[in-house]
Amino acid sequence: LPGLHVFAIAFALEVSVGKTNTVMALNNSNVLLPCTFTTCIGFQDLVFTWYFNSTEMIYHGKIKSKASEPSLVGRNPRVEFVGSTTGKDNNISIVLKNVEFSDAGKYTCHVKNPKEKNAQHNATIFLTVVQKMVEADNTVTLIIVGVVGGLIGLLILFMLIKRVVLFIIKKTRDGKKECLVSSSGNDNTENGLAGSKAEQKTPPKA
């Protein structure tokens, strides 16, 4: 059916910026903006474009086929292509050089594949620019870990003491049982033991 064919084509092209869509960079540093694409039926004369805040084009490239690397159509002077499309991954990542605070915002990686009836797809990544990377304060975490570790240690100590005490009580009770058995008035004549009821003297004859 024609409708199903168009539906399948529409979802054959996929574009991804990785597991997370946020990137943090230091002011005046270089930052990698990752992007890869996949296609089920291959590509020919594929066009990809990077946009800043949806409107400003910062890189525009074209890939003739899987056997060739992308050719540059146009770019911002501070943007460098660092990907490759002849390897396993169709990598169309770029590096933004000398990042400024004004570079913070939304970056869109857009791909169009004529071989898939001009199917288009894009992925977005958000860039945050900071003056310096803030180290996470682990004081609270260390306190929590210390308290939890201490509690676990106390619990283990309590359980050990409990087991020792129960062991001592059990041994004490077992000892008392042995004393009771040895001093009982049971008939032990079958075992040849003295002190049995069978040794009671018979009453004298009248």
UniProtKB/TrEMBL annotation:
- Keyword terms of this UniProt record: Disulfide bond, Glycoprotein, Immunoglobulin domain, Membrane, Signal, Transmembrane, Transmembrane helix
Q: Which GO terms describe its molecular function?
A: sodium channel regulator activity; transmembrane transporter binding
Taking every annotated instance into account, which residue ranges of this chain make up the domain Ig-like?
Answer: 2-126
Query: Under what name is this protein listed?
Result: SCN4B protein
Q: What are the record's GO terms for cellular component?
A: voltage-gated sodium channel complex
Ranges of Polar residues composition bias in the record: 181-191
List where in the cell it is found: Membrane
Classification via SMART domains: IG (SM00409)
Q: Which GO terms describe its biological process?
A: cardiac muscle cell action potential involved in contraction; regulation of ventricular cardiac muscle cell membrane repolarization
Keyword match Oxidoreductase: no
The UniProt transmembrane annotation reads 140-161
Read off the Pfam families from this record: V-set
**Region annotation Disordered: residue ranges?**
178-206
User: What Gene3D superfamilies does UniProt report for this protein, alphabetically?
Assistant: Immunoglobulins (2.60.40.10)
Membrane topology per the entry is: Single-pass type I membrane protein
* Record PROSITE patterns: IG_LIKE
